[in-house]
């Protein structure tokens, strides 16, 4: 089955083709992402209406480009997957409208995909580890991006239990806002992480929020305030900016690592098979986070799995892959163009490969 995936939840237009006849990374026949960073830079953040209009301009040419790179014509597609939520409603409707129209014209099934399920399943798209194989449920997933920071128990594909989430800012959002208050240009998160590479470890030490109490929730707003005060009272030199960036990044990374270790211990106490952590979302590309989580996994006899950095940020590949799993299981949507800007992942239907044809309600 060749599935066209379309992602338009925010400010990236992503298109991909995933072929279930091929395994692992080979199944990704082609993918392309157009970023709207330059469009939104002068506003210091995403402007929803501008995002929607740019998706309208870029989506169809990107579909044509991706199909050409995959060596396919539009009639070679067996199904269409699109991001149905969560996200910006106008942006979501652009992708959903295109996907539903294309599926109707081709008389092919279409499926609306939960954006965060796409992120969660992205590591399963990669080639199998030669020793451990591809990650299989049960496992714990850390979904960490500009809009979400969540720990999720994955008992099976489509069966998710929220273990903890941020009570205020997501980790990626905290990166962006911290960068902005120190004068770094938009988008600040990646620039702050790059600056932290040159910072002195330990020159500034900030708290690890909510790690001194039980539970798996996160909070990063207070950490931003600590950085603001440190920056305001400093000499505001480039050296100091780098040192504060390093201190901030270390605090976020340590907090995420502590909570992940705690979540895995909790799940292992319930099911000893659960020794795998899957990490996805834009912050999952952070080098220091990857190194810290890999180190922790080695110390505790577990494993951690990431998608390649290019598939950590929003992309059509993860939507094509997640959609392919559900289409193969016989799930599909009706012809209505419907999106869900706020969507609890725990309400998703399970994916049962042995099941017959069944409709999914968004």
Could you please describe the fold and organization of this structure?
- The chain is an alpha/beta fold and 362 residues long.
- It folds into 2 domains: 2-122 and 312-359, 2-Layer Sandwich (Nucleotidyltransferase, domain 5), CATH 3.30.420.40; 135-306, ATPase, nucleotide binding domain (Nucleotidyltransferase, domain 5, 2-Layer Sandwich).
- 40% of the residues lie in helices and 19% in strands.
- The protein has helices spanning 37-41, 48-69, 89-106, 115-121, 171-181, 188-196, 221-232, 238-270, 287-299, 316-328; strands at 2-7, 12-19, 28-35, 79-85, 110-114, 139-144, 149-156, 159-165, 276-280, 303-305, 331-332, 358-359.
- The strands form 3 sheets. The chain has a 5-stranded mixed beta sheet with strand order 3-2-1-4-5, sandwiched between helices.
- A hairpin with a 4-residue loop joins β6 (139-144) and β7.
- The longest helix has 33 residues, at 238-270.
